[in-house]
Specification:
Length: about 200
């Protein structure tokens, strides 16, 4: 006989394990109940408000939601936050950015979760570097270093796939690092743009 899943206990157990985002399979590892019981519980609690569905097979605690940055890392892997969102995060551009922008080695995609858009732009594997693990209050996420976020962004500007933003605040950025990251793309038009900026 399986144990009855109780929403309050499930929430407490997930929080204790720091599992605010999880797959159906991970849920079943924590709560060893038959497949059909787990699926029914997940479905009813999405409608009941304990969970939210981030995408098919991926859930989060609605009552204690993860940060947008954590959701961005989870819904499409591999990925790290970059481009406009990271530039805004580091105050390299003055604008507030509402779409969480990330880079990936997989196909370009856009997801919506609630009222937030998450966009992913594809870069080559050899350029997929220059990110760091940020720990901030209760959230942990992967984000490009400011220099790499700038290079990722300028790569797509040079491709004419992103609008140009000329209001960069480059104070505190490492010019040598910017040039090194740009060299990973092996593309002279990008290098020229970087040289004109620095």
């Amino acid at each position: 006989m399986h144990t009855l899943l109780k929403p309050i206990k499930v929430r407490e157990d997930l929080l204790r394990r720091k599992m605010r985002i999880f797959t159906g399979r991970e849920f079943m590892r924590v709560f060893p109940v038959p497949d059909y019981v787990a699926k029914y519980f997940l479905e009813t609690q999405v409608h009941g408000g304990l969970f939210m569905r981030l995408k098919r097979g991926l859930y989060a605690l609605q009552t204690d939601p993860p940060a947008e940055e954590e959701i961005a890392n989870a819904i499409y892997k591999p990925s790290y936050i970059s481009f406009e969102y990271a530039l805004s995060y580091y105050h390299v551009i003055p604008e507030t950015v509402y779409t969480v922008t990330s880079t990936t080695t997989k196909a370009t995609r856009v997801f919506s979760v609630g009222h937030t858009a998450f966009s992913y732009r594809s870069i080559k594997t050899e350029s997929y570097t220059g990110y760091t693990l940020q720990t901030q209050a209760n959230k942990i996420f992967l984000i490009a270093e400011p220099e790499k976020a700038l290079v990722d962004y300028l790569y797509f500007v040079t491709l004419k796939k992103s609008p140009d933003n000329e209001r960069f605040v480059l104070t505190g950025l490492n010019a040598k690092k910017i040039r090194e990251y740009a060299s990973l793309f092996r593309w002279e038009p990008l290098n020229r743009r970087i040289r004109s900026l620095l």
